[in-house]
Amino acid sequence: MRKIKLIDNISGLQLFQLMKPVVFLIISVVFTKSHLTRAEIGQWEMFMFIAGLTTFFWVTGIIQSLLPLYHRNKTFRKIGNYGSAKSPEIFNAFLLLCFFSLLTFILGHLIKGNFSVFHISGNAPYINLLLLYIFLSSPVCLIEYIYLLNNRAYRIFQYGLITFTAQLLMIIVPIILGKDIIWSIWGLIVISVARWVWLVILLRRYTEMRISVEFMKEHLYLGVPLILTSLISGSAQYTDGVIVSAVYRDPGMFAWFRYGAKEFPLVLMLANGLSNAMLPEFSTRERMKESLAKIKAKSRKLMHLLFPTAMLLMLFTRWFYPRLFNPDFQKSADVFLVYSLLIIPRLVFPQTIIVGRKKTHISLIAAILELAINIPLSLLMIKLGYNIVGVALSTFIVYTIGKIFLVGYLWLKMNIRPSEYIPLRIYLSYSVLITILFVLIDHRIIDIR
Predict the structure, then answer these.
(1) For 29, 187, 209, 287, which has the most beta carbons within 10 A of its beta carbon?
(2) Whole-model pTM?
């Protein structure tokens, strides 16, 4: 029982979100050491890339806007369900996720013959299975947040451990046995069906199954700016991937980029887990001071853990990349080094406060600013001869600019100083150190191979 108490909502969600990149890293290693060619790996990466590209923005927007609305909305306060044991909010969020999943599925079938990727048979790899996977996998992203909102922290960890282990096995076992990549895709679909079954069980257990058009309108009013924010720039990896695939039109080059364009999983998932878990705590003014102090303390702990770990990883990146994957992926190491710098903007959380206070239009403005800079800067970097490394460098620049904009908004418009939620001395010290280390490695003054 003591171990269970060591996992709270924040750490439970962080551990869950850490499992996904770890599983896909193992998959990447197995694929590069298997019978699959680099072009076949590029097709798998494009399959996963399109699945993420077509869903991440509305899934993110719906879930992030649900968190501050849970038991803190006008609709169910009016009709007497405010704070009831079973949540009608979660059920209506589920219906919105299903609607967007079905819409994406239908639109995908309508246009699937009118575009091509790498000139593969006139469309995307395994397009029908891809659309089925998109339809099944998107609503199940709600499961971990049902546990979060019902304070079942250990269940988040337990659910992730079981399902991600099963997913890993369903994907890599066929490849180990010498089968074609399509067997791994079917494995993804089978796991998505299993998650759907569990989602239905949780909906019956934790939600009041009543449709509320009024709440959906309230939810979308808050969520649409977040959806648009994510669509425009929510994940620079998607924008970068589109640029690389459009410019080079080569599955091998795309595989090189995708294997390098990975933020250090521990940074990405722990930062996102902290941000999402803290969103409900900023939804009321009464707890603002306490919540600011809490996110500052939590981010300080992350900095002491993640900056040294990231710097150690950077030192050995050029050594372990050809050994972890294969020598053909040496070029990916330079892209990964640049993406490692994203720890600098990742570990400050002005967006958490802004979204928690339901000022989602500010996040949208920041996203437009990032997009306006990212695409032309990436194309300029390619033209100047930096190739795929230049695309990664432009991503770091625009992420940093976006965070500076949000920090400035909080300071100038909401009178929340950076020092209230950022441990500035520690943060600036680590940022300078990791930047110096990057320059030394990039110029091969430090070169561990």
Answers:
(1) 187
(2) 0.69
